[in-house]
Amino acid sequence: MRARAAVLYAACLPVLIGLVFSLTTLSFRITKNWPWPRMPDWTVRALNVVPPAVAGAAVALLVALLARRFGWYEATLRGHFRRLAIVYVCAAGLTAVIVGNHESADFGLWSQFIQWPLAGLLALSSIDLAITAGIRRHRAPAT
After folding, report:
1. Among 23, 93, 96, which residue's Cα sits nearest to residue 56?
2. pTM of the predicted model, to two decimals?
3. Is-contact 2 79, C-beta < 8 A?
4. Which domain holds residue 53?
5. H helices of the chain, where?
6. CA-CA distance, 16 to 39, in Å (whole number)?
7. pLDDT tens-digit profile of 66-125?
8. Count of CB atoms within 10 A of residue 125's CB?
């Protein structure tokens, strides 16, 4: 059962990446006529983080629902790390690319292709952890 949940979460990664790029691209297209030179810096940062995070949250909710329905969702910290091992490995790899290249003059040209999926992965793992905590709290005996 444990391996099935990990496979399910691994299989969701292409869906996550596709949704991340789709939502973020759509957000940039919707806002292309905004007066960007006069906008505060946080708006650009938000546009690069919020859509990928929404994608990650949506995928996390969907995959957690599927895993629970099949009886594969172990609501423990150990279960969380087992399910999301590949997610954490991917996030660590993307973080290593960012850390290793942040001083490169060309990094700004392609950094979004790294940062968007990373934001989606971090949102997915955060939401799954919150779901795990919520289930554990709900199941905890009243004192």
Report:
1. 23
2. 0.90
3. yes
4. 2-139
5. 2-11, 13-30, 41-69, 77-83, 85-101, 107-110, 112-139
6. 29
7. 999 999 999 999 999 999 999 999 999 999 999 998 888 888 778 889 999 999 999 999
8. 20
